[in-house]
Amino acid sequence: EEAVAALCQMIINRWNILPKNIVSHADFLMADKTDVSGYFDYKLFYAALGFYPGLYITSLPVSEQTNVLYQSSTTFNSAVLTLQQQLHQ
Which domain of life is it from (predicted)? Predict the structure, then answer.
């Protein structure tokens, strides 16, 4: 995650990209992918970039957070599906 964050920071600085325009690989048609998982530490990634402080504050114990992060699902609510379709376009 640190190497990816360093590379992203260089790209962000070079092209003046706003934090709201940073999206993950998993945000694009996740149902069509077989390689998306919860193993990438977005908390560390965003912290390294200085984005979204407090985003991952939760009252869930670590064991429950892991269950949420690594669960696999093929169902998405309509708002997520709509956003993914718009991003794809």
Answer: Eukaryota
Q: Which of 6, 73, 71 is nearest to 39 (CA)?
A: 71
Residue labelled with tokens 């892991």:
66
Residues 16-47: pLDDT tens digits?
A: 998 888 877 766 666 666 655 667 777 788 88
Structure tokens at 63: 């064991």
Can you tell me the distance from the alpha carbon of 69 to that of 88, in angstroms, rounded to the nearest whole number?
Answer: 24
Give residues with Cβ within 8 angstroms of 46, minimum separation 6.
Answer: 52, 55
Whose CA is closest to 22, among 42, 1, 37? 42
Q: What is the dihedral of CA 14, 5, 84, 30, to 10 degrees?
A: 140
Residue scoring higher pLDDT (8 or 65): 8
